[in-house]
Amino acid sequence: MVRKAVLPVAGWGTRFLPATKAMPKEMFPIIDKPVIQFIVEELLEAGIENIIFVTGRHKRPIEHHFDINTDLEKHLEEAGKREVLENIREISHMINPIYVRQKEQLGLGHAVLTAEPAVGGEPFLVSLGDIILEKGSEIVRGMVDTFQRFGKSVIALHEVEREEVKKYGIAKVKEIEEGVYIVEDLVEKPSPEEAPSNLAIVGRYVFTPKIFEMLRDTKPGKGGEIQLTDAMRLLLKEEVIYAYKVETRVYDTGNPVDYLKTVFEFAMKREDIKEELLAYLRNAISKQTQLIDRP
Ligand code: UTP
């Protein structure tokens, strides 16, 4: 039974500096909701309530976000802002989180290993704090079902453009029955020529506790960091790893361009924003085009 989820949120977020100097990228808003709340909601909808954050010293706003803010509640109450008050209260009572501190940012693999005392010897989920999935709770449920069926680790994969493979961990898979895949090999950030496929690891994993042993044996790799992909390669030698194909949209919020695309796509789903923003964009694009077309 998968009951716990680990959310590593201790990274530096260097691709987003200076914004991430004092503010976690996981707290960046998608219009008015921080990225991390989408991920927590996805887990709750999938029935996973035990959430373990792996945090660091500059990640306090995440703890505050899921805590009670009595001053704010009092202010909203006095101002008669009932609707927003209810929303704020709901977030404060959403989860009973556990926070584990990663004292040095030694990589994603190291962050997951830091959570071991809180996870114990049971299977668990890992959800990355900067990736939002469309229909994420269905995907998490599907991964957990695959785990229940086979009792082995399951990783989520999605198709990326060939030229994009160099940004991701890429998996070679084999279909063993309709819609069920096993992982044969994993390569971290290959060139398009070297890549064994265009299936990228997408930030959702179900692991057997054996991954902790593998993480302990993993030597620092790229950038001196303990890479989760390297530990998964070790795990592959001991256990089968299943793959779960994500067919929905994957929103990466960890770099400026993809973050802006994510905000835009969510804005297009908001009736209170869509029309005004589109009108603005039409105007802005026509101005830009006139500038480009000017001889
Ligand atoms: P990223 O690869 O996005 O790294 O980590 P990062 O440091 O956050 O960002 P960049 O690459 O410097 O811009 C993937 C996830 O793993 C967490 C991050 O917080 C992010 O959610 N992570 C990474 C840790 O918790 N600890 C680490 O040491 C590294």
Topology of helices and strands:
Layout: E1 4-8, E2 29-30, E3 33-34, H1 35-45, E4 50-55, H2 60-65, H3 70-78, H4 82-92, E5 98-101, H5 108-114, H6 116-119, E6 124-127, E7 131-133, H7 136-150, E8 154-159, E9 169-177, E10 180-188, E11 199-207, H8 210-217, H9 228-238, E12 242-245, E13 250-252, H10 256-267, H11 274-293
Parallel strand pairs: 1-4, 1-6, 4-5, 8-12
Antiparallel strand pairs: 2-3, 6-11, 7-13, 8-11, 9-10, 10-12
The site of uridine 5'-triphosphate has 20 residues, from helix 5.
Largest beta-sheet details: 9 strands, mixed
Number of domain modules: 2
Shape: globular
Annotated CATH homologous superfamily of the largest domain: Spore Coat Polysaccharide Biosynthesis Protein SpsA, Chain A
Averaged pLDDT: 94
Please, how many helices?
11
CA-based gyration radius = 20 Å
Strand order of the largest sheet: 5-4-1-6-11-8-12-10-9
Order of helices and strands: EEEHEHHHEHHEEHEEEEHHEEHH
Query: Termini, distance in Å?
Result: 66 Å
Bound molecules: uridine 5'-triphosphate
Using DSSP, what is the number of strands? 13
Q: Provide the CATH top-level class of the largest domain.
A: Alpha Beta
Low-confidence stretches: none
- Percentage of residues in DSSP E strands: 15-25%
